[in-house]
Structures are given as C-alpha cells and as structure tokens.
Amino acid sequence: MPTLSTLFWFRRDLRLSDNPALVEAATRGSLMPIYILEEEGEGIPSMGAASRWWLHHSLEKLQQSLHGQLSIYRGDPLFIITKLLESQKFDALYWNRCYEPWQRKQEEALEAKLRELEISFQSFQGSLLWEPWTVCKSDQTPYKVFTPFYRHASSIPVRKTLLKPLEMRLLKDEDHSLSLEELNLLPKIPWYRGFEKEWEVGEMGAQKRWNSFLNDGLAGYKEGRNHPGKKNVSHLSAHLHFGEISPQQLWESVKNLGSEVPNKDKEHFLSELGWREFSYSLLFHFPELPWKNFQVKFDRFPWKENQELLSKWEQGRTGYPIVDAGMRELWQTGTMHNRVRMIVASFLVKNLLIHWHQGAAWFWDTLLDADLANNSASWQWVAGSGADAAPYFRIFNPVLQGEKFDPQGTYTLQFVPELKTLPLKFLFKPWEAPKEILREAAIELGRDYPLPIVDLAVSRDKALEAYHQL
C-alpha cells in the first residue's frame, strides 16, 4: 500500500457534504476513510436491531459514494486505530466528535495515545449545532430547563455548512478491511421487510426527504406536527442520528427561507432541533441519564413488574386504538409519530405503572432513530423523572388524545384496520359502542380487537396515589 497522509474515521457522520473533518482531511493529500463497528462492552449499549438494519444500508450507500474505498473493521477503535497508525503509513488522524459517555472516554484515551505516538490529530464539530460545553449558565453549570437553554444557544452563531470535497485521493486497506456482510448487521428475523418500502437510507435519501418536507410539510408545521394523520413531519430523525444529514444543513436551509413559509412554522421547527441539542447537553453533563432517574425521588417510585401487560403494549394489543396504532406503526415502519410517542409512553409508565426503563429498552431495539440522548431524555420527560419534565400528574388520556389529534381516524385506522367498520364516534373507545353497533360492524371485542387491558380512571388514580407516596 502506498504511503498515506491522513486516516479519516467515519463515526456518526455517514455523509460527504458538510462533513468538517472530511473536508479538512481531504486538503492534506491522500486519505484512507475507515468505519469501525464497536462491539458491545462495558458502558457501551448493544445497538438495537432496527438501528443495525439502518446502519447496514447507510454504510452500503456510503461505500458507493466512496467508490468502494471505505475500509471497514469491527472491534475496539483504540486498538484498531493504533495498529493502523503504528504501520507508519499515516501522519494524522481526523474525526468528528461524538458525545455519548463511552465515546467521550474513548476520544480521551485516543488523544492520549496519539500524543504518545506523536501523531497529529484534529477533531471537529459535525453532529450538533452547539458543543454542549458552550451552552452553560453564567456560573458554568448546565441548564436543566429547555427555554433558557435554547434562548442562550440561539444567540450563538451556527457554523456555515460545507460542500463535499471536490477531490479526494482515496485508498483502501485491501488486506484487513471487512466486507459489509461480515459485520452481520441485518437481524436474523426479517421483520424489517416493511422498512424497505418506507425508507431510502443514506445521504441522498436524507436530502430527498428534507427537500420534500421543505416543499410540502414545513408550512403548517407548528400545528400540524401534533396530528399524526397530517404530513407535517420531517421523518429525518434517523438520518440525523447516523449523520447522513447535519443539523447545520437543516438550520441554514430554514433560516434562508423566505416568506413562503410562516415564521411561526420555521421557528417551531428550529426549536425542535433545539430540543435535540438540549437532550445531548443533558447526556453530556449527566452521563447517567440513560440509567438513573434525573430526579432522585423517583428512585422510590413503586413501579410494577408485569410482563403480560408489557408484552401487550409492545404488540399493540392494549385495547386503546391510538396506543395500539402507535405501537404497530413502530413495528411496521421503525418509527412513530412524536405526539403518539408521548401517548404510548404515558400509557406505559402511568396507566400500567411499568418502569420507563422497559419502554426505553423497547424503543432502543425497534426505533430506526434510536438515539441515546433523545431516547433517555424523552422517556424521563414523560415519566416525570427527567429535567424540565412534564409533571407526573399530567397523564395523557388516549381516548381524548385520539379524538383531538386524529379526529377522522386517518392515522389510527391505517394501523388498526380491524376497526374500520366502527362508527367514528366509537373509534377511540370501542368498548362503549352498544352491542347492536358492534354487531352491525361485525366486531366482537376480545376476538377481533382486544378489550382494554386496564381501566383508565382506576389506573390514573393508582398512578397519582403512587406519585403522592413519594
């Protein structure tokens, strides 16, 4: 292999455009792009099955963009990178930073090793709008409430986006690079077949999805985003998580829009990017967020262990149509509308009194956009145990939520088609339908569709009682 100049490490930035570290590395001469699949280890959560599916296809698209010149490895990044650098073919390592707790430790260890080897290195900001340590209060402590966090963050200029390198002199480790198939990312149970119809994975797919949303989804976003039957959803979270598109690209595009989109819609979309940043700030400053209650009083909460109820929630068989629609959407498409995520999460932790850990674990395995910061912060928010959390006594009523946000049943009936013959009046509370109505609809509750697994009023009272015990 010829002498190389730079080793470039792809991580959560599987794109060529607006990739700061890649752009800089390309200016130095020849480079070898690498990707390392980390094995599960201490402090490193095992990647969920849905995420593995997405990663497989994202790497496949990245490999195509790099004309087959991506070198792929599996194992400990520190060990693998050290071995490559000690081959004396490189004089520098470039990468974009990540912010999960184990990745921060990993970068610190790597930097120490690079100094020991006297190898030049640079890391860059490629996946967040603002570095977590730059958005703190005047006393340098982190924000725990979103509004002041976002107000401060918004005053900090966002870096300009970058074009992809015009020219890259790429080389590949032909001797040791693995094939994509050797990573064994695709789950053995092919439940993901439906994903292939829903998603175009990769940088080009992200750009298409973004342009479609700009043209036909951003206008009306502030109100429409709450209605799962409407088109005001970007469907970009998985693309963002894997770095197929950067938050800077989204921020800059929206800021440059004219009056064709109302300001209230643009500002609300930007604030949603702000919530993503807030979640990462919380994870950065409180690395135990995925495992420990942010509010320690919830350590005493009397959660229930009930595998039967948990399984019915996972399968979308709770007897509450909006909840079941969300859980089935998740299973069939790998995603779930944000409003419905809050409804199903509230139902699990407050109506079933099942620990938010259980819900977060299911989302981690089945969401294509499974993201440690967002998943942890959002579940704690719904549970009432997190930072700036919804009060515990705020319990979403799935009947009222369905009637308010899916009034025509557009979304619910897409995933719960067995109720399509039921009058809309009873769609979100089929157990209240008179026997003759059910008979005319040819629906037998308990056979064609489940009876409710829990009484809303009784379970709400139990949840409030448990909370007051704290």
Structural key phrases:
mainly alpha, Rossmann fold, Serine Threonine Protein Phosphatase 5, Tetratricopeptide repeat, DNA Cyclobutane Dipyrimidine Photolyase, subunit A, domain 3, 3 domains, five-stranded parallel sheet, 20 helices, 5 strands, 45% helix, 6% strand
Helix content: 40-55%
Following the backbone from N to C, one meets helices and strands in this order, namely EHEHEHEHEHHHHHHHHHHHHHHHH
Radius of gyration: 24 Å
3D shape: globular
- Supply the number of helical segments: 20
CATH class of the largest domain: Mainly Alpha
Distance N terminus to C terminus?
A: 65 Å
**CATH fold type of the largest domain:** DNA Cyclobutane Dipyrimidine Photolyase, subunit A, domain 3
Mean pLDDT: 95
Number of strands: 5
CATH architecture title of the largest domain: Orthogonal Bundle
- What's the main sheet like? 5 strands, parallel
Strand coverage percent: 5-15%
Could you give me the name of the CATH homologous superfamily of the largest domain?
DNA Cyclobutane Dipyrimidine Photolyase, subunit A, domain 3
Q: Order of strands across the widest beta sheet?
A: 3-2-1-4-5
Q: Which secondary-structure class do the elements indicate?
A: mainly alpha
